[in-house]
Amino acid sequence: MARVFNFSAGPAVLPEEVLREAAEEMLDYKGTGMSVMEMSHRSKMFQDILDDAEQDFRELLGVPANYKVLFIQGGGHVQFAMVPLNLMKNRKAEYIVTGQWAKKALQEAALYGDVRAVASSEDKVYSYIPDCTDLSIRADADYLYFCKNNTIYGTVFHETPNAKGKTLVADVSSCFLSVPEKVTDYGILWGGVQKNVGPAGMAIAVVREDLIGDCLPGTPTMLRYETYAAHGSLYNTPPCYNIYICGKVFRWIKEIGGLAAMQKRNEEKAALLYDFLDQSKLFSNPVRREDRSVMNVTFVTGNAALDKKFVEEAKAAGLENLKGHRTVGGMRASLYNAMPKEGVQRLVDFMAAFEKREA
Ligand SMILES: *Cc1c(COP(=O)(O)O)cnc(C)c1O
């Protein structure tokens, strides 16, 4: 069996230790004689898995007691709808548009109310983070929304936007648990788990308690944060196996030393690749330097045919999923928590050899 170095943006690489452990427990979880997939979600065994996962997540992120941690089916796009459905009392919201995911979130919210882009970097193909220190936020706006790490374009907010006292909502899908967060800066912090935490199809939302309760009229039961909060994410059958894998990933991060240790590792990995890009005569990174993402590193040769050749040859060398998003082209290496430094070193070595060959 040979595992590749998988640079996919999502679903993405998971820690090998976690996959091995899950494989060992596949047929017989802790002497139950069944897989977690086959277990009642009302069993004590599963309740323990869920409770431990929530506890470890809270510890890792330092979630205060007045925030709920909710495990919600449906991934990112369901959160695009849940945020406005649960927060839009005045039917007004402000969005910072730094990429396709923020734009789609805005478009979804526009189904329910009066939504504005108060800042955008669309003018330069989302290659930078706009200044968000003094945004024109309406006095009766329900919230300010932003996407912290822009998976497709390879940018990240190094400074939290100034919400001027309004509720701040963040999509942290592609930087989830990669760095420490100050949870109290946010009303809602949510992430789809398939980028950095677990299998696809689920989001974890950290929601301040006072924001839970009022929804727009007609909001479906399963799209109310209250449903998840009141029933400990067990109103209906939850994505049990997904929660189980996420729980293992939380423990893996704790064993490494938590989010500060994770951040250090991630910054070292990204520096390896950016340092190479900065001296390369063939490859370049199209993002404004101070806004570079630590998780998703984009690069181009400036020649689409050569980009294609690079991606093909890299694949043959065991470096997979380096093709950029279909809307932007070029290349993208996603360096999530579970990507070992060795994988990034192999990529850099391969790029240097490719550059030499093509020069
Ligand atoms: C992938 C991604 C999404 C979309 O997630 P789905 O689970 O496919 O709906 C949203 N936001 C960000 C930042 C992402 O990277």
From TrEMBL:
Pathway: Amino-acid biosynthesis; L-serine biosynthesis; L-serine from 3-phospho-D-glycerate: step 2/3
Reactions accelerated catalytically: 4-(phosphooxy)-L-threonine + 2-oxoglutarate = (R)-3-hydroxy-2-oxo-4-phosphooxybutanoate + L-glutamate; O-phospho-L-serine + 2-oxoglutarate = 3-phosphooxypyruvate + L-glutamate
Binding site for pyridoxal 5'-phosphate: W101, T151, D171, Q194, N236, T237
Any one GO molecular function term: pyridoxal phosphate binding
UniProt key word Transmembrane: no
Keywords: Amino-acid biosynthesis, Aminotransferase, Cytoplasm, Pyridoxal phosphate, Serine biosynthesis, Transferase
Broad class of the protein's primary localization: cytoplasm
Binding-site residues for L-glutamate, renumbered to this chain: R42
UniProt cofactor note: Binds 1 pyridoxal phosphate per subunit.
Cofactors demanded by this protein: pyridoxal 5'-phosphate
InterPro entries the record matches: Aminotrans_V_dom (IPR000192), Pser_aminoTfrase (IPR022278), PyrdxlP-dep_Trfase (IPR015424), PyrdxlP-dep_Trfase_major (IPR015421), PyrdxlP-dep_Trfase_small (IPR015422)
GO cellular component: cytoplasm
Database matches in Gene3D superfamilies: Aspartate Aminotransferase, domain 1, Type I PLP-dependent aspartate aminotransferase-like (Major domain)
Subunit structure and binding partners: Homodimer.
Function in brief: Catalyzes the reversible conversion of 3-phosphohydroxypyruvate to phosphoserine and of 3-hydroxy-2-oxo-4-phosphonooxybutanoate to phosphohydroxythreonine.
Name this polypeptide is given: Phosphoserine aminotransferase
Species this chain originates from: Stomatobaculum longum
Higher taxonomy: Bacteria, Bacillati, Bacillota, Clostridia, Lachnospirales
This protein's encoding gene: serC
